[in-house]
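Sample pair:
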Amino acid sequence: MASSNYLINITGIVQGVGFRPFIYKLASSAHLTGWVRNTSHGVDIELNSNRQIVDDFINQINANLPPLARIDAISVKEILETKYDDFQIIMSEPQPGEFLPVSPDVKICPDCTSELLNPADRRYRYPFINCTNCGPRFSIIKDIPYDRPKTTMASFNLCPDCLHEYENPLDRRFHAQPVACPECGPEIWLEENGLIKAKKEDALQQARQMLRSGKILAIKGLGGYHLACDALNHNAVKLLRERKKRSDKPFALMAFSMQQVKMYCHVSEVEEQLLTSYQSPIVLLDVLRGEINTQHLAPGQNRLGIMLAYTPLHLLLTEPGDGFPDLLVMTSGNISDEPIAYQDDDAHNRLSPLADAFLLHNRPIHIRVDDSVMRVERDRQYPLRRARGYAPDPILLQREMPNILACGAELKNTFCLTNKNYAFISHHIGDLENLETLNSFETGISHYQNLFRVNPELLVHDLHPDYLSTQYAYRRATETNIPLIGVQHHHAHLAACLADNQYFKDEPVIGLCLDGTGYGEDGAIWGGEILLGGYQHYERKIHLQYMPLPGGEASIRKPARLALAYLHILGIEWPPYLPSLKAVPEEEIAVLKSQIKHNLNTPQTSSMGRLFDAVSALIGVRQVINYEGQAAIELESCLDPDVTSVYEYNVTDGMIMLADVFQQILEDMKQNCKISQIAAIFHNTIAAMMLDVSLRLKNETQISTIALSGGVWQNHTLLNKTRVLLDKNNFRILVHERVPTNDGGISLGQAVIGAAKFRMES
């Protein structure tokens, strides 16, 4: 067969993951000639061969990918013949306007772990050991192509040994951009009261001793700073809560190994796979009762969020021995509601009042990235926060998209940029409620636009006019004349679930969109929405009965107000045994009644999240919250899983009416039913409601595909009970797997809706 030359272009996660040396070895072993190089669009390979051998070579690539590589597309074209004597790796080629996905930061690999703990290795106990299969990526990259000069490692000149590894195509550190060793790379030190106490190994050992003795440390990690202390030392955890102003919200924990995790929590096979994956997220796990008291770590809950040590520094810091604790609190380095600190000066300013000492290093972090949080549902991952390990890995869509910037929601904000068939959903930004988080949002947008060569031709935003993300979109549209589209919050939830599941059919689906707050097209606060639709259109078919939200945010922060307001508007007298009456002073009750009567600062809401809050307060679980979702989370945590009964309710004129439910709850309280029983019946009732409304729409439309989206579906009990009922009635159920069901997924939904409307109007 005659030979020719073939140019192969490969796109996907193919830079910074050992792809070129992999190609080099594969081509050399097959005695092929030509070259491979990085470009701004991916990887190019030129082979001097025939088409059959080229096709076999591509099959070998697909069958033997490096661990972190992912191929999205391969193209082959025949070109003019050029003879080569061998196969080489040649210089990268920047290409204006082109882009490619960037690998997320990933945990230390087994080979580097082995070297880290091997006294004979030259990188023994070196906190920054890495190779092409592991280490920092997104947090250090400034631009593409992904080469060392375009990372924060540019200032560290390679020593002769590291340079030899870096330039040797047969070495696993070939063009590993963060490669370093104790002779030429970053180092750690320990600071106390602004003074350096120790460096390198001595710093590590003194840091461990401080943690053992109950001290709180600020630790510079991969994508930002953590605050750490002994998780089993109640006094240390209490002090951290006081300093961080985080009275009840659960703390994330870190363990050295699975052995330690299993001492305190149930761990399924799939949960273990997730914990030990390259992404190494925080995973929510059921506690082993009697093995650990969770009340100081996760008050009111029976689950803990645990991650394994994922960097060499974390491994060295948490290794067992010398009485070191099995678990460390490893929470974001910030004061409550602020973004995680990642720049050294800012960290010193913000964290000095919180930490007794700092464990620092001199490898700069270019972009902050918080830890990801996952749960397992039916043996599949269920994202609650998508950040380190996952971002900026894009969602690959079946449709090509225009260049869009979708600005997301206010709580748990992410933004989304699209280019061709890629949706680049940002890392978790946080709650856009202060200037610091807004600055993080705007910095992130600029960085993603630069990396992925996105010049937006459309801006998409939430309908709520007061969201900072909405105001950013308004301001940018005014400055640039870029078209602007507003998308209703729950329509975005529905679309996000569809895109997450690669559902791009023209047929509409039923959307059970349940959350706390979403601005409705009628100006009310929606949140208990049963929709029918797809990307271009939606209909609001059924919703929860409108209820008052007196004082707006005041009632969200104090569910006791909701419980009293709901009963009042439903015409139900307040029984004297009501726990919420004790939580609301008489003067406040008078104001509350007046607000409802005169409709003063009392928006109407159909929110399912607020209904959970009201019931939680009503039966005495939680009257005042300290973090978003607390009342509902604690309501779920206290329920009796063996209770199967439900409350009666009715659906009238497209509204789910609530009076009967509240009357029956009060009757159970009067009969001294246990809180755990009432909580269970309430959950059963909501699941039954969701089946009921789904069957109504199925009978009306013959549609049997259902999407479950919105923050309420973070409730494991409700999600599981609803899925069981829908399964029994032969519905096809779509749930989230790649983006969060909460508002962290909103930006993806906004983007795909924006694209659909953009096509209609073009």
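The first strand starts at residue 4 and ends at 13.
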